[in-house]
TrEMBL record, chains A, B:
It is found in: Cytoplasm. It comes from Streptomyces venetus. HAMAP family: ArgJ. The keyword Kinase does not apply. Substrate binds at residues 146, 168, 179, 259, 378, 383. It holds the Pfam family ArgJ. This is Arginine biosynthesis bifunctional protein ArgJ. The lineage of its organism: Bacteria, Bacillati, Actinomycetota, Actinomycetes, Kitasatosporales. InterPro entries: Arg_biosynth_ArgJ (IPR002813), ArgJ-like_dom_sf (IPR016117), ArgJ_beta_C (IPR042195). Pathway: Amino-acid biosynthesis; L-arginine biosynthesis; L-ornithine and N-acetyl-L-glutamate from L-glutamate and N(2)-acetyl-L-ornithine (cyclic): step 1/1; Amino-acid biosynthesis; L-arginine biosynthesis; N(2)-acetyl-L-ornithine from L-glutamate: step 1/4. It is an enzyme of class 2 (transferase). Its EC number is 2.3.1.35, 2.3.1.1.
Amino acid sequence: MSVTAAKGFTAAGIAAGIKENGNPDLALVVNTGPRRAAAGVFTSNRVKAAPVLWSEQVLKSGQVSAVVLNSGGANACTGPKGFQDTHATAEKVAEVLGRGAIEVAVCSTGLIGVLLPMDKLLPGVEKAAESLSEHGGEKAAIAIKTTDTVHKTSVVTKDGWTVGGMAKGAGMLAPGLATMLVVLTTDADLDDDVLDKALRAATRTTFDRVDSDGCMSTNDTVLLLASGAAGVTPEYTEFAEAVRQVCDDLGQQLIRDAEGASKDIKVEVINAATEDDAVEVGRSIARNNLLKCAIHGEDPNWGRVLSAIGTTSAAFEPDRLNVAINGVWVCKNGGVGEDREKVDMRYREVHIVADLAAGAETATIWTNDLTADYVHENSAYSS
Amino acid sequence: MSVTAAKGFTAAGIAAGIKENGNPDLALVVNTGPRRAAAGVFTSNRVKAAPVLWSEQVLKSGQVSAVVLNSGGANACTGPKGFQDTHATAEKVAEVLGRGAIEVAVCSTGLIGVLLPMDKLLPGVEKAAESLSEHGGEKAAIAIKTTDTVHKTSVVTKDGWTVGGMAKGAGMLAPGLATMLVVLTTDADLDDDVLDKALRAATRTTFDRVDSDGCMSTNDTVLLLASGAAGVTPEYTEFAEAVRQVCDDLGQQLIRDAEGASKDIKVEVINAATEDDAVEVGRSIARNNLLKCAIHGEDPNWGRVLSAIGTTSAAFEPDRLNVAINGVWVCKNGGVGEDREKVDMRYREVHIVADLAAGAETATIWTNDLTADYVHENSAYSS
């Protein structure tokens, strides 16, 4: 299903030989129209990979005919040659599809600071184009995996139109966005400015609030392509909600597959003075290594939650803070609350509620525990 | 030596039974005069432990006669009862020494959110007072250990006067300050405003730039006590430099004993537009979990350095950044530099230089690698 669940799209995923282990590493998604409106959101890291710099230019026209994605190399910090390689990749896709290169978005993921093997990538584009199919969404989703253990897809179908998508990402997950490539497609008939509005609204409260390890990638890209093939123009709010649902589902899949994680942690900040305060506090808790280790050890260590809250500039009084872990209010009024022995930490999902007692705003950040497996994976895998 | 290297101080370290394993857990440092000027720097965490709230008030007078320190419990997030306990501890010290309670600073370290066993602590104060000695500095340094594997002391002796000190801290090390208790003493004859100036200048470039795990404690305290017993008033610059040296030495000892660490990482940011930029970039690099894992794996993964720099607001151009790891410029002009195979990562100290090519300012942040041992220690030890 994935990106080909919506009508008007074909996709392929093949092994071009970029990855030395022979796994699939090249995906192609093509909008067969009749429309080709598109929107994109990119990493806010100031060190941007060549494909991000290229695709940002492509998206300025609001038109995308195809997206080519490779795993096995991020093409980041690769200088002018890296940018030439991205450009050559777009040119190759344009050539085989009979489109203009400026309509071809490029995404790369993998090791930073290494040039892509263009002698393998360019023939791979031809091979991918030959295997394009209306059923190719699954294979495309598989070809963009790096340390992902599973491929991630999501589809929402409404009355006569569909939003579908695929995502990759398992580490370097943090706001703005994650090490994360996402392609969403829809057969709804919409202009690029509507797509852009819906996509930004959706990513702001989904991918931007997934923070696995606090590390922001150089390559993050989320694209939304509309073919118009369904011949339906949905109401904005209904469409925006469908996009949000797909983004939320894919974001959850990213967290559940985060490198080395054994716990998915939902950090819900309530009664904040502002939404910004709620997000700042949520991120501070989500990034606290000591707390993440404690959760790994199934220790409801609320003191580490309070010390994380204390580092923020959010409005709160220390002696009015309350913290619940899995439904037990272990901290009340900044001090000892209910018996921590009551907290059941056996399950994968852990729910932390931080009550700032300072207003009525709320935000939820998702993160993971910090584990020896995360350390092993990231000290052994050069990425 | 430690806090009793300077004349005019006695100290003791005993086992009061606060720690269940029977290890030393209570230290007392007494200024026997003739002067008792003092200065203090405290955590910038807004969630402050009871002893921090108390000692901040004590230091307002610029006079400290004694410092009582306990390990085995942080007395943080313990509400009004916790504050009463700190107050009762100061009263007890005042009583046994015949001083005023408002001249007694209190420091605590250990688990957050648990009340101290006052039935053990108060008799412990009496026991400590009985064993006060001009040679007690070492025992005091031992009694404040938590997960520290070694006790930390440092002494600088100049022409007729001395600055000495002790420190504890092994995790939750981050700016403003670390989970760190430090008591410095001097027999120089100086006013509290001079002590304050010298202490703030010293901590700004030493303890404040030690960032083991990005987590800021609720209990950090650095105290500097002057007895005047040497009868010498040194020049300010000479005194300030001696204080800086002791702080720097103790800060280095904290990093070398950080929980689970196998590498000490010196992050030196050069050619920054401002010192603030240099510190911001240094902290961002020092807190990047992916980089810290890579260093643990002896992988000179400069891409993770660049992605960390890219998250800051410092002045720089991505294509002018240079990065050296252990003397090899593995990244030049934002791209691939010298062969990363040349980097020798076998030794404990790792030196990362980030050249922002944007000015002439510099700053150095010290951190550690992220290891499975850190995870194990902090998922098993409730602190």
